[in-house]
Design a protein that fits this description.
The structure holds two protein chains of two kinds. Chain A is of the alpha+beta class. Chain A has 26 helices and 38 strands. A seven-stranded mixed β-sheet of chain A has the order 26-29-30-34-33-32-31. A five-stranded antiparallel β-sheet of chain A has the order 5-4-3-6-9, with no helix packed on it. Helices cover 35% and strands 18% of the residues of chain B. The longest helix of chain B is centred in the first third of the chain and has 30 residues. Classes of the chains: A alpha+beta, B alpha+beta. At the A-B interface, helix 2, helix 10, helix 14, helix 16 and helix 17 of A face helix 3, helix 4, strand 1, strand 2 and strand 4 of B.
Chain lengths: 841, 344
């Protein structure tokens, strides 16, 4: 939202310096995005008069002119009469014009913010040209480049061009977002009122905006207009008036200039007036060509109907596009055709142009949601939409229309051609009060001060609010506050608190911390637990990654997961981000190939994050968020030789991680699918014959294993890859504090035992036998025992393998004898032989 | 498996037979007969749809299982003794072991989040993590965004085909947190909670913009809480975080869920307001905040006449980028070791 400070100053004084004011606007009104000191770019532009003009001797389209600059510029070459010669290519240059002259060394204003172009004195086809006579576009003054700008105000040669058109102005661009609930601040008048408020100055709106109106006087040759509103719910107010005998031409340059500096293009006087009034008040208006509307219905009466479009109905718009509007849009139509998308954009076949004789002015109020929807669904974004979708007040249309009519009369000579239509369907307070949109708010200084930490008196609060034209009535301790009609946002006492705080200045609030007692706050044990897992794995040389929650449908398919149970985005930016992931592991697997390519030979990645699927939901239909931890290891093929199966490396990390949190897991072969769909998805990437369920107390914690060959191929994985995915909530549930083992005063004894078993006997079975014997012996004799692997050996072609285990025995009360240790090992060998047909080596 | 529905049963028989002739067994899942059955779903009456859908899904799972089984048999993978510590004959120096600690790293976003949460914990705030999928009710309704409100446009939200929402801010948790702790208020205890979480915006990626990033929300509710408390709390946090006294300033802003609302800026801690490449002209706009709108309190059954509170939300990624002078936000989710290993 660009505002002109010069324009603002027509409505309020400003006490502060410009710099102070801009700081205050930032602190009390909205973020200032940009400040442009317009005057700087016009510093060199001088008013001059063309006193002679002859055809260029060497060029058909050029003229050689003599100008009078009142002797203003010292360093320029002059003839004996003191005139300056300038060559000009414009078709409209002639003697007597007052023009804008860019003398040598001046910067062309339109290039000021870009690559600056500096004028010099130079010969053009043999004739000296001292600077140039500028067009509106070169001056960045309007959009006209057909010829040079001919000044339409009385100005003396040598005067500053900027002075003549009030261009020593400052344009302040304030972020729109602040004004989402402030339709009044989309007009100069509203911003001026706010600035007065933060300057602690009493603001008074102009009389034309506030006064009670009589019916508009019909003073022109009559035109018949019928108006019908078929959408009373969506159009609370619809005003229209026809005006006859308008003379459409260019606007006065002063108006064009003010529109240009706040970013609106000048078109013609009628359109410019509607835009000018909109820029001033925030209320968008539209002008139709009366005769074009009437001609559509082939009658002498123009008929305007407010309705929804029918399916298939089309309209070609002022921006040159033809659209088939969404059937919920509000449309302005004649009996036979659509005329405009209400509040958004007009149609091009009823546009006001330079041949227009009669017009219809529309000043309406449209439902903000419907306008927004029409704008979004039809892809139309205009100054008008920006204002309507903030919810303009329906109580200002008559005054604004009257003001617009006065301008049209003044600039075009037109006159009111029939009485105005004013179809009102106001609701609630607006209907009964006629002055305020919302019911008065009753509050008191205590309520306000409590929320601001201030101690403002009743009269201080009253003054702050009255400065911006609120009506404040004291009723005992209470204040009854009526927001004026343009303030649609003041509905509850907290809105008044905002208003008072802002006008007072939030940077003056007392800063103090809230007070509370010493009760410790509740801790989040899951969060602490996740931090612990993160520490364990990173300390074990793994790298934590974060990957997107969204994955490509192809990734799900590549790893054998079912996209149909994954939540799918309906507005994904790209197919890469289409589905919520079903497990974490595939995202990690995707990161392996690029890292190997970048030269990383061996690494382990892990992530702690959430997974979701449609089969696993709460009662309220939201998915249960599974907390997972996934880890992968990968090794470049160049160095993975001899490392054995990657599975064991992953298993080793699972054991390390779980033993760090006091869990002693078991690893079970995968002979059945998990019971839940959620579990099935987690299992999908794993190679079942080379993977295991990780369990504790018979409860499934997750899966560890190698990746299916097909998946490896799809994701360009090296052969040495394995990983695990575990349920963090389960881990937290089963975690145990580590148990301290007292130290014995007596030495421990270590002995290895090698057992030869058939190939089909698993390592676990052997260990189980060993441990069962040790456990029985411990109970009887009070040993403390530990078993660890030493070697697994299989001779080439053999049908058996050797498993060697190290047994560590400790006693707390005595030194162990060799004899009892040997006896124990013999007992193990005996039981192993009975149960596993194992032989001791 | 026996199928009740005749059509499903027919297709099941047909496809199981075809499976034998397929080289790529997984291709059976793409059979046009199966797709045709799925296409019938939307046209069915709701009471029929559930049963039919269930049968279809069963069929699909069965085919998937068959295809997997077949695939496995065909690729002749050697089974492992998954209970063993390593393969037979693995020399001792090749036994599995942990990688060296100096090769490991924690993600800088998680590290920074922990730092921030630690400060808030010391200040008396409890932590509640936010969700990664939520609904319209929590994203907008409980936060005083009416249906169709233009303020909804400011959040480029991702939605799912089930009309759920990928949260565009951590404020989606406000209602839940207020409800969870509302009972504390009556006991004279404030609600003091910070909410970290992953949030999503439908934005194109570039060096400055991510569609996925981390935010931290804060909520404080008690009797007599005012805007001065809000500003002081954030100022205290920032001074502790940067280990130096920072200046702060607010600019009025608009959020439907706070009234008044502010944009909050701090004096640049890197150049002490002199102006540098991080801050530009001495100030860093860091977060949005405000006094919790009474409608938001009411939605959680907290009486706004008795209790008031403040809330704020800001990005974590930005803090980390400024701290380490990281040039491209996309590194965070890139999984690149060359980036990650710089943060141990």
């Amino acid at each position: 939202m660009k505002i002109s400070l010069t324009w603002i100053k027509e409505f309020t004084d400003i006490k502060d310096t410009e710099e102070e004011l801009i700081a205050k606007i930032g602190a009390q009104l909205g973020a200032v995005e940009e400040v442009t000191h317009l005057g700087k770019r016009y510093a060199d532009v001088i008013v001059a008069k063309v006193v002679a003009c002859e055809k260029h001797p060497n060029a058909d389209k050029l003229s050689v002119c003599k100008i009078d600059d009142g002797g203003k510029i010292k360093s320029v070459k002059r003839d004996k009469d003191g005139r300056v010669q300038v060559v000009c290519g414009a078709p409209n240059v002639r003697v007597g014009l007052t023009v804008a002259w860019l003398p040598p060394a001046a910067i062309v204003p339109a290039t000021y913010d870009k690559e600056q172009f500096r004028i010099e004195a130079r010969e053009i086809r043999g004739e000296m040209s001292n600077g140039m006579l500028a067009s509106g576009r070169e001056l960045d003054f309007n959009d006209d480049h057909e010829g040079i700008l001919a000044l339409d105000k009385r100005a003396e040669p040598g005067e500053s061009f900027a002075e003549v058109y009030k261009l020593n102005d400052t344009i302040i661009d304030i972020e729109n977002k602040m004004f989402t609930h402030r339709p009044d601040c989309f007009g100069i008048l509203g911003v001026a009122r706010e600035i007065a408020g933060i300057e602690q100055i009493k603001f008074t709106s102009p009389e034309w905006y506030l006064k009670e109106l009589d019916a508009f006087k019909v003073d022109g040759s009559p035109l018949k207009l019928e108006v019908k509103n078929e959408l009373p719910e969506l159009v609370p107010r619809f005003m229209m008036v026809p005006m006859s005998n308008v003379h459409v031409s260019k606007s006065p340059l002063m108006i064009q200039s003010f529109l240009q500096r706040i970013g609106i293009k000048a078109i013609n006087n009628v359109v410019d007036i509607t835009n000018f009034v909109m820029a001033l008040t925030g209320q968008p208006l539209h002008a139709f060509d009366y005769d074009k509307v009437a001609a559509q219905d082939k009658t002498d009466t123009a008929t305007v109907i407010v309705r929804h479009p029918k399916k298939g109905e089309k309209i070609s718009l002022l921006n040159g596009k033809t659209i088939e509007p969404d059937t919920r849009s509000i449309m302005i139509a004649s009996r036979s055709r659509l005329l405009a998308v209400a509040g958004v954009m007009g149609g091009n076949d009823t546009e006001v142009d330079f041949d227009t004789k009669n017009i219809i002015l529309e000043c309406a109020n449209f439902d903000m949601y419907a306008t927004r929807r029409a704008s979004m669904s039809n892809g139309l974004f205009t100054e008008s939409v920006t204002r309507f979708n903030k919810g303009q007040s329906p109580l200002q249309n008559d005054n604004i229309l009257a003001y617009t009519i006065a301008w049209v009369k003044k600039l075009t000579g037109g006159a009111v051609a029939s009485s105005a239509h004013d179809i009102k369907h106001l609701k609630g307070w607006a209907k009964s009060s006629g002055f305020a949109v919302n019911k008065p708010v009753t509050t008191n200084p205590i309520f306000i001060n409590e929320r601001l930490g201030l101690s403002l008196t009743k009269s201080e609060i009253t003054k702050l609010l009255e400065n911006v034209e609120f009506i404040v009535e004291g009723k005992g301790e209470e204040l009854e506050i009526t927001a004026p009609f343009w303030r649609t946002d003041i509905e509850i006492a907290e809105d008044v608190v905002e208003e008072v705080g802002r006008l007072y200045g939030y940077d003056h609030l007392p800063l103090e911390l809230p007070k509370r007692d010493l009760t410790p706050t509740a801790k989040n044990s899951l969060l602490e637990f996740k931090a612990k897992l993160r520490n364990i794995l990173s300390a074990a040389g793994s790298n934590e990654v974060l990957t997107y929650s969204f994955v490509h449908g192809k990734l799900l398919e590549k790893v054998g997961q079912n996209p149909e149970i994954a939540y799918q985005l309906s507005n994904a930016i790209s197919p890469d981000l289409q589905y919520y992931r079903l497990s974490l592991l595939p995202s990690l697997l995707e990161k392996i190939h690029p890292n190997i390519k970048e030269g990383n030979a061996q690494f382990a990645l892990f992530e702690i994050n959430k997974t979701h699927d449609k089969t696993n939901t709460h009662e309220d239909n939201l998915p249960i968020e599974e907390e997972r931890i996934a880890w992968v290891v990968a090794t470049d093929p160049k160095i993975s030789k001899g490392l054995g199966s990657a599975y064991y490396q992953a298993k080793y990390y699972v054991q390390h991680l779980l033993s760090s949190i006091g869990i002693d897991p078991t690893f079970e072969s995968i002979k059945y699918q998990p019971q839940t769909d959620t579990g099935k998805q987690a299992l999908a990437p794993f190679e079942l014959k080379r993977s295991a369920y990780v369990k504790v107390d018979g409860k499934l914690l997750g899966i560890v294993g190698e990746i299916r060959q097909e998946v490896s191929k799809n994701l360009k994985l090296p052969p040495y890859v394995a990983g695990f995915e575990l349920d963090v909530q389960m881990l937290e549930e089963y975690k145990q504090p580590k148990v301290y083992q007292p130290l014995s005063r007596f030495p421990s004894t270590e002995q290895d035992i090698s057992l030869k078993v058939e190939l089909k006997v698993t390592y676990r079975e052997v260990v189980d036998i060993v441990e069962s014997v040790l456990s029985a012996a411990s109970q009887e004799h009070g040993y403390h025992t530990e078993v660890s692997p030493v070697d697994v050996y299989k001779a080439k072609g053999a049908e058996a393998k050797h498993i060697t285990l190290r047994i560590r025995l400790t006693h707390y009360e005595r030194t162990l004898t060799t004899e009892e240790v040997n006896k124990l090992l013999s007992e193990i060998a005996k039981v192993a032989k009975q149960t596993l047909k194992a032989s001791r080596l | 498996m026996a199928y009740q529905n005749k059509k499903v049963a027919e297709v099941a028989a047909k496809l199981k037979k075809r499976l034998n002739d397929l080289d790529n067994k997984a291709g059976i899942l793409k059979a046009h007969e199966l797709k045709a059955l799925y296409d019938e779903l939307p046209a069915l009456k709701p009471e029929q749809r559930a049963a039919f859908g269930k049968e279809l899904n069963n069929l699909k799972s069965e085919l998937q299982a068959l295809a997997n089984e077949e695939a496995e048999v065909s690729n002749k993978v050697e089974a492992l003794d998954i209970t063993a510590p390593y393969d037979s004959n693995t020399p001792e120096d090749k036994h599995p072991k942990l990688f060296s600690v100096d090769q490991g790293s924690k993600h800088p976003l998680m590290t920074e989040l922990a730092t921030v949460l630690d400060i808030f914990a010391r200040m008396g705030f409890t932590t509640v993590e936010s969700r990664q999928i939520d609904d319209d009710y929590h994203m907008f309704e409980t936060l005083n965004f009416p249906e169709g409100h233009p303020a909804r446009d400011d959040y480029d939200t991702f939605t799912t085909t089930d009309s759920l929402i990928a949260p565009a801010h951590t404020s989606t948790m406000q209602n839940r947190v207020l409800r969870t702790y509302a009972a504390d208020l009556a006991k004279g205890k404030p609600i003091a909670v910070v909410i970290p979480g992953r949030v999503f915006r439908n934005e194109d990626l570039d060096a400055r913009h991510e569609h996925t990033f981390y935010q931290l929300e804060g909520i404080y509710v008690d009797k007599g809480i005012h805007a001065g408390h809000l500003i002081a709390t954030l100022k205290t946090f920032l001074s502790e975080y940067y280990q130096k006294e920072v200046e702060v300033k607010t600019q009025p802003f608009y959020f439907p869920f706070t009234e008044p609302s502010f944009e909050f800026a701090l004096s640049c801690p890197f150049c002490d307001k002199a102006g540098c490449k991080i801050c530009g002209e001495g100030w860093i706009e860091l977060l949005g905040c405000g006094m919790i709108h009474p409608n938001v309190l009411k939605m959680a059954d907290i009486d706004p006449k008795v209790y008031t509170g403040f809330a704020w939300g800001g990005g974590i990624d930005r803090l980390v980028m400024m701290k380490h002078d990281i040039e491209d936000i996309r590194h965070f989710e890139s999984g690149r070791l060359s980036f990650l290993r710089q943060f141990s």
